[in-house]
Specification:
The protein has 440 residues and is an alpha/beta fold. Helix content is 44%, strand content 13%. It has 19 helices and 14 strands. The chain has helices spanning 10-21, 33-40, 51-61, 70-74, 97-109, 126-136, 158-164, 175-185, 197-228, 232-240, 261-274, 280-293, 295-303, 330-340, 353-357, 370-374, 387-391, 397-400, 415-421, and strands spanning 2-6, 25-29, 64-67, 79-82, 114-118, 144-148, 168-171, 192-195, 311-315, 344-348, 365-366, 379-382, 405-408, 424-426. A six-stranded parallel beta sheet has the order 3-2-1-4-5-6, with helices on both faces. Strands 11-10-9-12-13-14 form a six-stranded parallel beta sheet, with helices on both faces. The protein has a two-stranded parallel ribbon with strand order 7-8. α5 runs parallel beside α6 and α9 (197-228) packs across α11. The radius of gyration is 24 Å and the shape is globular.
């Protein structure tokens, strides 16, 4: 099919590239001309495993194009995907400014009947508003069909998830739009859920809210386990064997981050208030996660009388592995608190340093490897469970550090590995390994 994708962020670019890889003729539109120039040269502006290779391959095939010109990008398109950002507003609600700008551009440039598909995460009822907004300003006599096709991609494995997802949700009150989307998505060979517009919008929010709640729940169980002498690894294993619970998202740590869970949980609370319905469970999930992100610094300050003048190695800056996204990442608040407490922070991440420089305190110094970050460090703090960080033997920390005291916010190592290595090892929801005096 002839497809346009508006927006080349994480969702839009992955969507456009993968749809072109299925054999569709795809043009991606973005107002950022510098980004468009990069993409036309076959350079991905974001890090996602497998994305660069697919980008290059489909540009070479002639299936994939990029432009900042709406007229050029929309010409003869049958289906148009909206995949622009919906950032969080000051009150927690989704900011639809970019979506509104897209609606205005579409109304001015549409020349033929189209199916408009919202890929962006938007509050329930937004798709109806999109349709009405476009139709009220159309310059040509064309028919607009609207559909919702929310994404369920995990950053860091978005390309894999596109081809191996659990389900594809398509929602519309127009049967023709549903048929078109079913035809586009059939080659993925993933179960398709067909529903109405509002239910499709709600499925996205409900799914992310539930996963966020599951993460906060296991983190609270971890904190309690640590206080009463239980091991959260064993607790999670025993819980996860229950098919009603499942083992996914039961890894204790320092909370969730990124562009989805924090924004979407707050958005649900916000439009719950608009509907005069309180969401106390989700409100507590958000509060619990905020507390959890600070727990690693609390552990450090509990262990040491002061970190002033101490050298701290931060390992992992992205909010999760296999992405360069540091939005809502624990590294932001952890580095700020340590710098404010007088520590000297040396940080390493395999992909996110460029983005980190724009957000983390200016005092942070950056290393080019795990080993160089650890060199002469008094404390090591693991914030992201990158494969490179997990595979760096804990037994080698002592070779580089002044004193091997490790605070692992992602439980990358087993307690047995820590014990055999001879280091002092603090993790989440598990007993402390090694000599750990308390000065306070």
């Amino acid at each position: 099919m002839e497809i346009a994708v508006i927006g080349t962020g994480y969702v839009g670019l992955v969507t456009g590239v993968c749809l072109s890889d299925l054999g569709n003729n795809v043009t991606c539109i973005d107002v950022d001309k510098e980004k468009v120039d990069m993409l036309n040269q076959g350079i991905s502006p974001i890090y996602e495993e497998g994305l660069q290779e697919l980008l290059e391959a489909n540009i070479s095939k002639g299936n994939l194009h990029f432009t900042s010109d709406y007229g050029e990008g929309l010409q003869d398109r049958q289906v148009i995907y909206i995949a622009v950002g919906t950032p969080q507003g000051d009150d927690g609600s989704a900011d639809l400014t970019y979506v509104e700008e897209v609606c205005s551009s579409l109304a001015s440039h549409l020349q033929n009947d189209v199916v408009i598909v919202t890929k962006s995460t938007v509050p329930v009822g937004t798709n109806e508003w999109i349709k009405a907004t476009i139709e009220s300003s159309l310059k040509s006599d064309v028919k607009v069909r609207i559909a919702s096709n929310p994404e369920f991609l995990r950053q860091g494995s978005a390309v894999y998830d596109t081809y191996n997802g659990d389900r594809i949700v398509i929602g519309s009150d127009d049967e023709t739009a549903l048929d078109v989307l079913e035809e586009i998505n059939a080659p993925f060979r993933i179960p398709i859920v067909k529903t109405d517009l509002r239910s499709a919008e709600m499925i996205k929010y409900a799914s992310n809210a539930f996963l966020a709640a599951k993460i906060s729940f296991i983190n609270e169980m971890a904190n309690l386990s640590e206080k009463i002498g239980a091991n959260i690894d064993h607790v999670a294993e025993g819980m996860g064997m229950d098919k009603r619970i499942g083992s996914s998202f039961l890894n204790a740590g320092i909370g969730y981050g990124g562009s989805c869970f924090p924004k979407d949980t707050r958005a649900v609370i916000s439009f719950g208030k608009d509907a005069d319905y309180d969401m106390p469970i989700l409100a507590n999930v958000v509060d619990s996660n905020e507390r959890q992100r600070g727990i690693i610094v609390d552990k450090i300050m509990e262990r040491f009388e002061s970190v002033k003048g101490m050298r701290v190695a931060l390992l992992g800056l992205a909010f999760k592995p296999n992405t360069d996204d540091i939005r809502e990442a624990p590294s932001i608040s952890v580095s700020e608190k340590l710098i404010n407490a007088g520590a000297e922070v040396h940080a390493y991440d395999p992909a996110a340093i460029k983005n980190a420089r724009q957000v983390l305190p200016a005092e942070v110094k950056y290393a080019d490897s795990v080993a160089s970050a650890l060199a002469s460090a008094d404390i090591a703090v693991i914030l992201t469970e990158w494969k490179e960080i997990k595979k760096f033997p804990i037994s080698e920390y002592a070779q580089y550090m002044k004193s091997p005291v490790i605070f692992d916010g992602r439980n990358c190592f087993t307690l047995e590995e820590a014990e055999e290595s001879g280091v002092e090892y603090h993790s989440i929801g598990r007993p402390v390994i090694g000599n750990a005096p308390h000065y306070r």
